[in-house]
Amino acid sequence: MMLRQLLFSATLLLGARGLSAQDQPAFGAYQFSNGVHPTVDAVFEAASAREVERFWQGELKGISVKVTNKKELVGHAARVPAASPDTLQILVAVEKPKGSLYTTAHIAFFTTAGYVGPDSPERERDGTVEWVRQRTAVLRRQLAQAEVDRQQRQLDNLNRDLNMLQREQQRAENNIRRSQERMEQAARDSATAAQGLANLDASPLAAQDSSDLAAAGKAKEKERSKLQAQVKRAAYNRASYQKRIGDLQWDLKKNADGQKTKQAAIEQQQSAVNTARGKLQSIR
Questions:
Q1: Could you tell me if 227 and 197 are in contact, meaning their C-beta atoms sit under 8 angstroms apart?
Q2: Cβ atoms within 10 Å, residue 156
Q3: Selection from 5, 4, 49, 3 nearest residue 30 by Cα
């Protein structure tokens, strides 16, 4: 019955103030180890229970004489001057239901008059809510900045990948140009060697006696073999460069597809970065 009454009071308070539980700290209730108490609840999106608990433990250490962490965090003899001139006991329980995107910190404040709730005196009620709101904003900014940094790193990685693809494209284009030049040179070498063979075949032997004729014939055959080897080598080089150009052109096609895909991913990631920055800027 007490839990239902507390939740009903919290709902009325939220309705009166026009607040969302995910936007501002709100009164609720939670079952602590020593009973059900009214709480000021702060909800965090996309945060682990561990990092939320670690944050509140640090906050309690800054204002408490002692902090224990058994079944829940407890700040003993804590000071929140805006809420009470006396010391408080602050209980913090953090929960994140399995599969949920949200982590909730349930924070209970115990004063000499009892636990602070929606019906507590204005100073205690508003002071505790404001204390939670200020600390909640700090953690949300930290979480939001971490998300901006994470999204920016992904964007930087994508841009590096695109830059690498662009460099690979430039190298492939340069290699195609050089291969074309070498293929054209191979064609010229083949034509030169073929012309040399034609000239060789068209020129008669100039020797007069038999011994000179044999030597001239041997020299002519040696030159013919040399020119034939040049023709063969030029043809082989031309075919090799032609194949290399084909392979590089295929690589360029795949590169162009990769750049297109990467550019689309960059645009999408830039949108994610902008969204994360917008969330960070909206936290007050």
A1: yes
A2: 12
A3: 3
Which of 196, 214, 216 lies closest to 206 in space, CA to CA? 216
Helices (H) and strands (E) in the chain, counts: 4, 7
> Residue 122 corresponds to which tokens in the numbers above?
């204005």
- Other CB atoms within 10 Å distance of the CB of residue 259: 16
CA dihedral 6, 11, 12, 14 (to 10 degrees): 120
Q: What does the pLDDT read at residue 256? A: 97
d(CA 257, CA 248): 14
pLDDT band at 92; cut points 50, 70, 90: very high
Longest dimension (CA), the chain: 136
pLDDT score, position 212: 67
Q: Each residue of 160-206: pLDDT tens digit?
A: 999 999 999 999 999 999 999 999 999 998 899 889 888 887 777 65
- Other CB atoms within a 10 A radius of the CB of residue 154 amount to 15
